[in-house]
Write a structure and sequence with these properties.
A six-stranded antiparallel sheet has the order 3-2-1-6-5-4, with helices on both faces. The model is unreliable at 1-15 (pLDDT under 50). Helix 2 (26-42) runs antiparallel to helix 6. The longest helix is centred in the C-terminal third of the chain and has 23 residues, at 146-168. It is built from six helices and six strands, in the order H-H-E-E-H-E-H-E-H-E-E-H. The chain has one domain (20-168): 2-Layer Sandwich (Beta-Lactamase), CATH 3.30.450. The chain has helices spanning 20-23, 26-42, 70-73, 84-91, 106-111, 146-168, and strands at residues 45-53, 59-66, 77-79, 95-97, 118-125, 128-138. By secondary structure, it is of the alpha+beta class. A hairpin with a 2-residue loop joins strand 5 and strand 6 (128-138).
Length: 170
């Protein structure tokens, strides 16, 4: 059976971009959800989200979430040009913010929960950033540590391997 990332594609055809639908099907969904749960645990976070570019690439869309607002975040989107996860996607560089640092308020408004701290890491395949893995609000308050960010970057690297493997399936 063809992978959801290139079902019906002819050999040599360009692969479709990673999108919400591709992340929510079968083996890929199970593996990404497990990595997301592991990232939340490793970073002592309240919640984690796997973000993918919108079809127009003007926004990032919540594809998968592990936490208390899954229904909201798996339908949320944030502007690419005006969000921490958008910055991470565009630059390919991980980032952390803490209390008082600016971030796009849209998700907080939808969930009714404040983002006090966030760490985000790019999911890269080769030189291309295909998604962003983010976690928010470490338990006990405060900010995410360098160790937390390194753990998140490791989970983002593993997510890239899982996605690449799904794309390479016959």
């Amino acid at each position: 059976m063809a992978s959801p990332l290139h079902a019906g594609a002819s050999p040599g055809a360009p692969r479709p971009p990673l999108d919400r639908a591709a992340c929510r099907g079968g083996r890929l969904s199970r593996l990404l959800r497990r990595l997301l749960a592991e990232a939340v645990a490793a970073c002592r976070a309240a919640e984690g989200t796997f973000w993918v570019p919108s079809p127009t690439r003007a926004a990032l869309e919540g594809a998968l979430n592990h936490g208390q607002t899954t229904d909201i975040l798996e339908t949320a989107s944030v502007p690419m040009a005006d969000s921490v996860v958008g910055l991470v996607f565009c630059t390919g560089t991980a980032a952390c913010i803490g209390p008082g640092d600016p971030h796009h308020p849209g998700v907080d408004e939808k969930t009714g929960l404040p983002t006090r701290a966030m760490a985000a890491a790019p999911v890269r395949i080769g030189s291309d950033t295909v998604a962003v893995l983010s976690v928010i609000n470490p338990s006990g308050g405060g900010v995410f540590s360098r160790v937390d960010l390194e753990a998140l970057e490791w989970k983002a690297y593993l997510a890239a391997l899982v996605i690449k493997d799904a794309r390479d399936e016959p």
